[in-house]
Amino acid sequence: MPAAIEVRGLCKQFGTVKAVVDLDFEVSSGRVTGFLGPNGSGKTTTLRILLGLVSSNAGVATFNGRRYLDLDDPVHHVGSVLEATSFHPTRRAEDHLKTVALAAGIPAGRVAETLELVGLSDVARRRVGKFSLGMRQRLQLATALLGDPEVLILDEPSNGLDPQGIQWLRSFIRHQASLGHAVLVSSHLLAEMEETVDDVVIVSQGRLVLQTTLLDLANRSGSSSGLRIRSPELDRLGSLLEGIPVAYRQVASDTLVIDRATPEWFGPFAAKNQIVLYEVTHERSSLEDVFLDLTQGYEAPVPGAPA
Amino acid sequence: MIASIRSEWLKLRTTAVPWVLAVIAAAVTGLLIVTVFVNGGRGPAGGPGGGPDQRLGTGAVLHTTQQLRNLAGAGISADLFALLLGVLCVTTEFRHKTVTLSLLVNPHRPRMVAAKIVTTALLSIVLAVILLAVTVTGGGIALSAQGGSFTNLLHQVPAVAPGMIVVFALFGVLGVGVGSLITNQVAALIVCLGWFLIVEQIIQGIWNGTTRWLPTGAAAAAANVTRGRGVHVALFNWWEGSLLMLAYGLAFAFLGSAILMRRDVT
Question: Cβ–Cβ of B264/A75 closer than 8 Å?
Fold first, then answer.
């Protein structure tokens, strides 16, 4: 059975700029996939190719094995939120949805339903030009949901949302996945996606850096954790550490950092050697750090730098 | 296709475009009715039949067939508004980027252009009918006030209505064609107005025989009325003119669709 979304060998060049280079990834049903990369890494271009808005120079981008252009009634299969600007400012929210409903043969009752779903029922008759950015994003989501699609594509949907809005979006996305829908959501901030996504597709400069599960990514970050220790007895601690195979470095007159150490190991070690401690901090490099390492390292490889 | 047309109409009527165009076109037509009376029947189309004794205030009223036809068909001079309707039907979508959503709903671009062509043609016909209503009521009231015959005016409507309807529909089609070729709204409007108000005049001035081949000449033939732009040359007959207009409109629409197919919507 083909994947809900499949991208194979996708290439796109704008003039001399290579926006997407030989990109491969898959998105499964019932899971939320974060499409992550810095600004300008080709995420939006990839999504627009998927949706038939931009042509590709090579490769395929399909939904359950079919191109968007070949889907009958595409809005019944794929719902998409692109940028927050594609509204006519004098059109009322309700009418905006009706233009889609009419063209796609969706019953008029569904318009009120989706407005309710995104919490915009009270402003259904208001002109979109008067909407805040957050309200526009909600209206975009309502538009995407009109056809009750089994695949959702969301391009930076949290842009312009306040913290409550982001919270709401998170539960909205999780709910969609729990219904068995495939959700592909792009972002340039992994931190924002940490609580939402199951899988990650990380791109940089139009190329795939990594496709994996969030769990795997979290393990990578855990493996590069360390202990930051403040103590008046750094000299003695240092000579004790010389005797065992750990890497450490002094970062201040009273502070040193031990790489890949855990408090469970260091606590008994310090007690046994009767070292006075002022402070022990378990430092985990965050997912964001891993993400930055992955994308930046890819962007600007430094010769001779440790991997 | 009917669903797409209903959607296109909803898109249009939820913007100011059709309303503003209709109001301005009606106002222009109203002004033209006034000039018909002021000029004693020479009217906007500059047709024959006006004489000094028929000026407003001398007691004479419009009565010849040509005078009454000029009055009933005064709205034909607002045909460019049908063109603008077509241009705006396409370019407004690009200006506000709603074309992205339109293409997500209907990814087949030529089909989108076709839906706009049919919608605009239908609306242009409605506009022609509205303008006919304006000339018949406005002109009728003015005529009656001066002791003229309203019934005689009504009798001339069948003579001018078909021409107006055909010309408006064809200008609507041409507008969508131009709009899909030149998607930048300002550029498309400048090209249209520049062409019809300036370029055509220059071409006619240089090559006298070209008028019948130009859109204005073809439209004038289609309407079977003399537009009175100061040039009197042989025009095509009405159906030749109509076909030529349609050919212009479809050629632009075809070219526009072909380019749209290759265009990346970003």
Answer: no
A254 closest CA partner among A269, A273, A232:
A232
Cα(A129)–Cα(A91) distance, rounded to whole angstroms? Answer: 8
Residue A134 sits in the same domain as residue A63: yes
Other Cβ atoms closer than 10 A to A113: 15
Same domain, A123 and A240: no
Say yes or no to pLDDT of A49 above 50.
yes
Instruction: Render pLDDT for B104-135 as a digit per residue (tens, 0 to 9).
Output: 999 999 999 999 999 999 999 999 999 999 99
**Same structural domain for residues A83 and A186?**
yes
Asked if A53 and B100 come within 8 Å (Cβ–Cβ), the reply is: yes
Give per-residue pLDDT as tens, B142-162. Answer: 888 888 888 888 888 888 888
Are the Cβ atoms of A53 and B265 closer than 8 angstroms? yes
Give the integer Cα–Cα distance in Å for A289 and B131: 68
List the CATH number of the domain containing A147: 3.40.50.300
Which chain B residue has the Cα nearest residue A89? B96
**Is residue A204 located within the same domain as residue A232?**
no
Q: What confidence score (pLDDT) does residue B51 get? A: 40
Asked, for residue A29, whether it belongs to a domain, the answer is yes
Whether residues A52 and B106 touch (CB distance < 8 A) is answered with no
Chain B residue numbers touching A86 (CB-CB < 8 A): 96-101
Give the mean pLDDT of chain B: 84
| Number of separate domains in chain A | 2
Q: What is the 3-state secondary structure (H, E, C) of chain A?
A: CCCCEEEEEEEEEECCEEEEEEEEEEECCCCEEEEECCCCCCHHHHHHHHCCCCCCCEEEEEECCECHHHCCCHHHCEEEECCCCCCCCCCEHHHHHHHHHHHHCCCCHHHHHHHHHCCCHHHCCCEHHHCCHHHHHHHHHHHHHCCCCCEEEEECCCCCCCHHHHHHHHHHHHHHHHCCCEEEEEECCHHHHCCCCCEEEEEECCEEEEEEEHHHHHHHHHHCCEEEEECCCHHHHHHHHHCCCCCEEEEECCEEEEECCCHHHHHHHHHHCCCCCCEEEEECCCHHHHHHHHHHHHHCCCCCCCC
Which of A195, A220, A245 is a domain's end point? A220
* The dihedral sign for the CA sequence B95, B97, B101, B106: positive
ipTM value, please give it: 0.81
User: Which residue in chain A is spatially nearest to B101 when comparing CA positions?
Assistant: A86
A230, A196: one domain: no
